[in-house]
Design a protein that fits this description.
This protein is an alpha/beta fold. It is built from 24 helices and 25 strands. Keywords: Acyltransferase, Transferase.
Length: 723
């Protein structure tokens, strides 16, 4: 499960931080190694690819080294000041580029794997606390930041078992293991983690260091952040135990001390149902799209397999260890709470709604008020062991909240990681009803002007800008993104309103929402710099010049193209020779009717004051010269849903801007092309509005009857009008 090949180094300080890394040889497979700084042993033993050497801890450090093509870890000894200098060439695979729908491994590891790994590491579990790198994490992408996992009361360090493979692509993952018999005081653990942070900071001062603290580990992360305000830290706190003083564990301590040893074997069964949600633990490897009967069968089987693992909790946290750790937890909570004002790091709190050990939901709200830069995501159906339950992956949460970065500045182009297959399936589950009722059908135009069903006419090579009409509430984006990913393997980088990234609408009760999923799918805030970066990166860009003014339009403005009066993107596209694809979408009038628009709502007393209050402090990225599209008289309309019709998309003939760099100076030529693109969008919508009347399956009911009579695979579509 978790075999460890290690090498030790002589002591040089009172603390004993350990680092688990991977030594890589291009001619050989990656071999896990363990660098220990320092070891309690009197001798130094080095093992790299099977070669070993030893020396006295009091003498000079001698390492038998091989000149590898790609050494990942180098040790040297400074004889003058007797300090050990660690120089680590950052791991990172320059050749690996993650493609959309990559395998993040979520669901391949379960709670059973956690117990198996914990059992193995707890056998003969002596020595001080130490770091290790899970083999499942593999080699990360180039320039990945470091992630240090700080465990909860179990201390095994395997709390990220379900997330190892995914996190290993984006981070240098290192986990802290606190042995069962270890009695290091809280201040000692703080210094141990602090030393690890300082080493990482010395190796890569321009990169952030992530501290993921689970329960007790949350206190540890906050303490380290408070003591190191100048280090670029990002804290992910999972049900942090800073609320220990208000928890059910507080009165449990005297009862536990009086509990006879014979009864302690029954304690794990009690704790297992208090700590987590057994149903969600057993659901990790079960896909949501399975038939109910099959899901129930697998759930029953997983629960049955989980029961034999529960007695292992008695070995992970025996009675004496549990008593010690509860006392340690009390100290940790007091220490962290007294220093919250000193925390300058970015903080994300993940709180479970069904945490039976700690009042995590209330604590998240308190921390959001007490810490300067703190955000919250709630998971209402999860228990205390959030990271071991069927939930959204940790990497997904970090990226969806825009907290993933490889340098001091957040760059959503440079640091973007394409969505994985698990993320894609989860997102489609969220919007599954909309996809089912709209029955979207897409058409594209070939180079010769012929219209065909599908996306055959869409360019594959970037950079490409898809410019179109924004339907009511932007509902067309869902099917658009899905089709491009599944049919073309292309992630559309949507240019979105900056408000989605400001976090001003968030609060301590926020859950992982559709707006977070938009960031997973590649959305970036509208700005000239991001458009420049995307074009330079040869991305496929989704652009709506009409923006929220089109998406929240008034009554009678269905399919009215409301664009700026001057070209905003044409000259930038010409600079990079990008291809522009105008497209039209129709179908919003088959979904809902607008009952009250902004003009109607403005007649309600205090409504305008409410809207202006919401807009106060918001980003204004267009001025009055942009025309009607710059109007701030917008608000979500009140709608009346209808029996759904169908969404139709038509992508026009691609327009290449190669060789048009003269537009950078010729504003008249740029404006002429801009008007041509706008005309193409209007023409495409006119074509679809006319042809959809010929679609025998435009109605949702007709489509469902057809699908019942002629069941097909998910990739097959219900027929539409003839071209």
């Amino acid at each position: 499960m978790a075999s460890i090949t290690s090498f030790g180094v002589s002591p040089f300080s009172a603390m004993r931080p350990r680092f688990r890394v991977q030594a890589q040889n291009l001619d050989r497979p990656i071999i896990p190694t363990n660098a220990v700084l320092p070891s309690e042993s009197d001798s130094v033993v080095t093992e790299i690819n099977g070669a070993s050497s030893s020396s006295s801890s009091s003498g000079s450090l001698v390492l038998e080294t091989k000149h590898l093509k790609n050494d990942s870890f180098i040790l040297d000894k400074n004889r003058e000041n007797e300090k050990l200098i660690i120089e680590e060439k950052r791991r990172g695979n320059d050749d690996v580029v993650l493609e959309p729908l990559w395998d993040d491994g979520y669901g391949t590891q379960t709670v059973e794997d956690y117990f198996a790994a914990a059992k193995e590491i707890c056998n003969d579990d002596g020595g001080p606390p130490r770091w290790f790198c899970p083999v499942e994490c593999g080699s990360p992408l180039k320039n990945s930041p470091t992630l240090l996992f700080l465990p909860g009361l179990d201390g095994t360090g395997f709390g990220l078992t379900l997330h190892h493979k995914a996190l290993g692509k984006a981070f240098e993952v290192r986990c802290l293991h606190i042995p069962v018999l270890d009695r290091t005081p809280f201040e000692g653990l703080v210094k141990l983690v602090e030393e690890a942070v300082k080493v990482e900071y010395a190796l890569a001062p321009k990169k952030p260091i992530y501290l993921v603290g689970d329960s007790f580990g949350g206190c540890l992360a906050l303490a380290v952040a408070a003591r190191n305000p100048t280090v670029d830290l990002v804290l992910i706190l999972v049900n942090p135990a800073t609320s220990f003083g208000r928890s059910q564990l507080q009165p449990f301590l005297p009862i536990l001390e009086a509990l006879p040893n014979e009864l302690h074997v029954a304690l794990p069964f009690v704790l297992s149902f208090v700590m987590g949600e057994p149903m969600k633990m057993a659901s990790v490897s079960i896909e949501n799209n399975l038939p109910p009967a099959k899901k129930l069968e697998l759930l029953s089987s997983n629960l049955t397999a989980l029961l034999p693992c529960l007695p292992e909790l008695a070995n992970i946290v025996p009675k004496d260890t549990l008593i010690w750790k509860l006392k340690l937890l009390k100290t940790a909570a007091a220490y962290a709470n007294s220093r919250l004002h000193a925390v300058k790091a970015e903080v994300l709190v993940l709180a479970s709604g069904k945490d039976n050990l700690l009042p995590s939901k209330d604590e998240a709200q308190r921390l959001a008020r007490s810490i300067q830069n703190c955000r919250v995501r709630n998971f209402k159906d999860s228990g205390h062991t959030l990271l071991l339950e069927d939930c959204i992956g940790l990497l997904t949460i970090i990226r969806g909240t825009c907290m993933y970065r490889s340098s001091r500045r957040n760059d959503l182009v440079r640091d973007y990681i394409p969505l994985s297959m698990t993320e894609f399936k989860s997102a489609m589950d969220v919007v599954g009803l909309l996809r089912a009722v709209t029955g979207s059908v897409m058409f594209s135009t070939l180079e010769n002007g012929k219209i065909v069903q599908g996306l055959a006419g869409v360019p594959v090579e970037g950079p490409v800008i898809y410019v179109g009409y924004h339907m009511l509430f932007g509902l067309e984006v869902v099917s658009l993104s899905e089709e491009f990913i599944t049919q073309k393997g292309i992630v559309l980088r949507g240019i979105s309103h900056p408000e989605l990234f400001e976090g001003r609408r968030e609060n301590a009760s926020s859950e992982f929402s559709i707006f977070d999923w938009m960031k997973i799918f590649g959305a970036v805030p509208v700005s000239g710099s991001y458009l420049f970066k995307l074009l330079k990166n040869k991305s496929h860009i989704l652009l709506y010049p009409g923006g929220q003014r089109e998406a929240l339009h008034y009554k009678g403005e269905e399919y009215k193209v409301i664009w700026p009066d001057h070209p905003e993107f044409v000259r930038m596209a010409a600079r990079f020779g990008a291809t522009i694809v105008p497209f039209g979408t129709v179908g919003e009038d088959d979904i809902a009717d607008i009952l009250f628009d902004f003009n109607d709502l403005a007649k309600i007393p205090y409504f305008l004051e409410y809207v202006r209050e919401l807009q106060r402090g918001s980003v204004k990225f267009r001025d009055e010269i942009s025309g009607e599209v710059a109007s701030r008289n917008i608000a979500p309309p009140v709608i009346l849903p209808k029996l759904p019709g169908r969404f139709y998309y038509l992508f026009g003939k691609p327009i290449s801007t190669k060789g048009m760099k003269d537009m950078l100076e010729d504003r008249e030529a740029a404006n002429k092309l801009y008007l041509q693109i706008k005309s193409e969008v209007e023409h495409n919508m006119g074509y679809l509005l006319k042809k959809r009347d010929e679609d025998p399956y435009r109605s949702f009911i007709d489509r469902k009857i057809y699908q019942t009579l002629y069941p097909r695979s998910e990739s097959d579509q219900t027929p539409t009008f003839k071209l």
